[in-house]
Structures are given as structure tokens and as C-alpha cells.
Specification:
- With 195 residues, this protein is α+β, with helices and mostly antiparallel strands.
- The chain folds into 3 domains: 76 residues, no CATH class; 52 residues, no CATH class; 41 residues, no CATH class.
- The protein is 56% helix and 13% strand.
- It has 9 helices and 6 strands, in the order ααααααββαββαββα.
- The strands form 3 sheets. Strands 1-2 form a two-stranded antiparallel sheet. A two-stranded antiparallel ribbon has the order 3-4.
- α1 packs across α3.
- The termini are far apart.
Length: 195
């Protein structure tokens, strides 16, 4: 009896996966039909929305992208921060990285390392690091991006009274707390010492 239950369950699973796949294929075909309609009548989307108010310009735009082969149909139903960014890539890149992981640079105590990460598993911050507009950043571009983010997020240390964590006394700099300085801040300190 248990064997029959597993078989019935497996049949349901197979049926679901088949319907899911056919649904995606039908959405792609609907996109192709929409493109043909738009090529014939640029106002076709308005007619579709009048006939089916549940649809909106954004959804129809996605169908048009599928029909024009600029959006992989799976990206219409699968959602994640990585997939949202992947959808902006050329179709060949979308198709490749729906399943294939992408090299992602991570910072470690000893510098950087590269992990292979699937787009579907990326956090928003990771997706911002890996994807740039319409291309995937190279490892070098990702390292530069990480450095840029560190610079953007840098806030100079302040003492409790709002003053810088150093003072100048008798031509010497006395650091009151650990701090990081930009070139401009260091230049300002040197200018004060030289006075």
C-alpha cells in the first residue's frame, strides 16, 4: 500500500512539473502573440487591458520582453534579488545563469576569495555587487565595487564631543581613539602641524 501512495505522489509531482513547464511555454507563446499584435497596432496593450483589467502595462511589458526574446520566461515566475538583476541581462546570460552559478568576490581576513553563487540565492547586496546594469561584473570589477562601497560607507571616527579623535600639541599629532583618515583629512592635519 505504501508503494502505491508513493507512486500516486510521484504522479502528482510529475503532473505539477509538467503543467509548470507547459505554463511557462504558453506564457512565452502569449508574448510572441503580443509582439505580433503590437507590430500591427502599437495600442494593442490598451485593448488587452480593456478586455482583461487584471492585466496592467507592467505585466504586458514583461510578456512583450518574452515575445521579443529579451526576457527568459522563467524569470517571470521565479523571484529573488539575483533573478531580478539577472532579468536585465541579455537573454543568453539569463539562460546560462538560471542554473549556472556566478563568481562572486567575498572579503576575508586575508584579502578576498571567490565563491560560486546561484543568482536565485543572492541577497540584495550580493546582487548589487555582481550585476552592473546590463552585464555581470568581472572579479576585478567586483573588487573595485567593494572598495567603492567601503569608501561610501566610511564615517570618520568622532570623539564624544563631536571633535576629531586627534589633537595637535607641540607640533605632534596625538590620537585620542583609533581612527581611519582620508587623504584630505590627513592633509588637513599635516597643514595644521606645519603652521
Amino acid at each position: 500500500m505504501k508503494h502505491n501512495e508513493i507512486t500516486a505522489y510521484q504522479q502528482h509531482l510529475n503532473s505539477f512539473l509538467d503543467l509548470y513547464t507547459r505554463g511557462i511555454e504558453l506564457w512565452a507563446k502569449a508574448g510572441e502573440v503580443l509582439v505580433a499584435m503590437l507590430d500591427e497596432n502599437p495600442n494593442a496593450c490598451e485593448d488587452i487591458i480593456k478586455a482583461c483589467p487584471r492585466l496592467n502595462p507592467e505585466i504586458l511589458g514583461r510578456f512583450e520582453q518574452m515575445g521579443r526574446k529579451t526576457l527568459h520566461p522563467r524569470l517571470l515566475v521565479e523571484s529573488s534579488s539575483g533573478f531580478d538583476r539577472l532579468a536585465k541581462m541579455p537573454l543568453s546570460v539569463q539562460t546560462r545563469h538560471l542554473e549556472e552559478p556566478i563568481p562572486m568576490v567575498v572579503e576575508t581576513e586575508k584579502g578576498t576569495d571567490v565563491l560560486m553563487v546561484h543568482a536565485r540565492n543572492m541577497t540584495l547586496a550580493q546582487a548589487k555587487q555582481v550585476f552592473a546594469g546590463t552585464h555581470i561584473r568581472s572579479e576585478g570589477e567586483q573588487r573595485a565595487w567593494l572598495v567603492g562601497q567601503r569608501a561610501k560607507n566610511f564615517t570618520p571616527a568622532k570623539s564624544t564631543n563631536g571633535e576629531p579623535p586627534w589633537r595637535i600639541r607641540n607640533g605632534r599629532v596625538e590620537f585620542l581613539a583609533g581612527c581611519t583618515m582620508t587623504a584630505g583629512e590627513l592633509s588637513a592635519v599635516l597643514t595644521q602641524i606645519i603652521k
